[in-house]
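Title: Prediction job returns without error message
Component: structure pipeline
Severity: low
Priority: P3
Assignee: unassigned

Description:
Job completed but the reporter wants confirmation the result is attached to the right record. Sequence as submitted:
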Amino acid sequence: MKSHFKKFAIKVIFTAILSAVFPFVSIAQSITTTPVININAMNLLLPEATTTPVETTSPSPVKTSSSKHVEVSASPRSGSFVEGSTFEVPILLNTKGASINGIEVYVSFDKDKLSIIQQSNGTSIIGVWVEPPQHDNIKGMASYVGVVPNGITTGSGSIGTITFKALSAGQATVSINTNSRVLLNDGLGTKTILDTGRGVYTILPKAPEGVRIYSETHPFQGSWYNNNSPVVSWDRDIGIEAFSFVLDNKPGTIPDNDVNTTDTTASFNNLTDGLWYFHIKAHKDIVWGTTGQFLMRIDTSPPADFKPEVSYLTAAVVLSERTLISFFTTDNLSGVDHYEVGVIDKSQPPTSSPVFVQAESPFQVPLMKNANLRVIVRAIDKAGNIRDASVDVKASKSIFGTFWKDYLVWILLFILLLIILAFITHYLFGHHVLKHLKKAFKNVRQEEREEVEEMMPVKQPLVEVNIPVTTQQESVIPQNQVNIPVELPQPIQIPQQEVIIPAFIPTQPTQSIEQPQQTNIPQVPVQVVET
């Protein structure tokens, strides 16, 4: 059990990494797209471990909704099959209007009368498998556990198809276990109330060995054919005189004792779809032998009509565009075998035919510039019937064409924001609001500047001193007037008062004049002139 839990834990971690990384490649998840996986649903669908739990942050608790009902059932609910034959039982889900994304379904069957020979998941609504579909013929169990990205609301969604082989005669039951769970797509992994439906099948005993029967038109009894006019042949043993046969839809019919033919071939025309049993017995020596039978499966109806869906993925880095084509349909009798996809360039002559390749949904179609394509999806059932559906795909006129389509709401919001911004700008500039604000700020700065100048000390201006200088010589020297700028010390401001500053005149004049040894320089008044 410990190794079993580790394997599933590794699968869940790998799935979470893929779901977190690959959506950014397409949009780019989106993507978008990208599919959204409910991690709570995946955690709830993991098998319980019996080892010592590790301290982790537990997921949100699961609550049971009393109002959301879903139904899981086997289809058909009843039927009759011959011992040794095989038949398919689809497991269908009806969400009854609810959106679900977590599926954990366990199927029980009568291991003594039935055996699983194939468990298919090719057309399942499950997109991410928490564990692959498994079955155990010894225990009579089968399981489907997985997640539907983005959720699904369906009336008859296929979870998977089980192919049984009838082992022995009697009543065989295929039922859905009560421990199965279907979780809502609400981000919380809310459990729904599960209604289960079972199928009861009658296994008829194999007819006794009799005449060896074969058909060139329907050679294999386990295969479906779209030919509704079969031809049946049989061998004539030595001594056989005549034959009695009947063709019907019942596996255990015994022809009456009336001779129908002495030939070894019989043909039938325009039979309806379904299972047809050819019964025949031989007459020899007045004794009728055991009855031999041959099963023919006829399906002339194509799969159900469907319409492919187109999703555009734009990669702005490489300036290219790709398209995802999604498709799905069903077939009531033989079932869908596979899909094929063909692409036609509509610019080419209409006589050109596409080359079909087998594909699965979703199918990626690269788009070149100005491409105009028609994608044809062909659904082929197991009888060879074909249903075609087409969709036209055009490249966007620009690489931002799909961006505009996907993000139209955000673009409109951005345009509305620009309009509001334009109105605000018009109001500020058209009504000179900014001009008045600028003038007010300028006045405030002017007032602050004046306050600062009043608080700063006043610088004392320079004074100019006019000093008349006379010298005593034999000839009279004209008075020389010397202008000396004097910078006064910082005085204490005394308003409206006259400041008298003594000026000292050097004893040596700047002029080169011969002086007597003693010169009497009279005191002269000093006139202070502001510069």
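Comment from assignee: result matches the submitted record. Residues 408-430 form the longest helix (23 residues).
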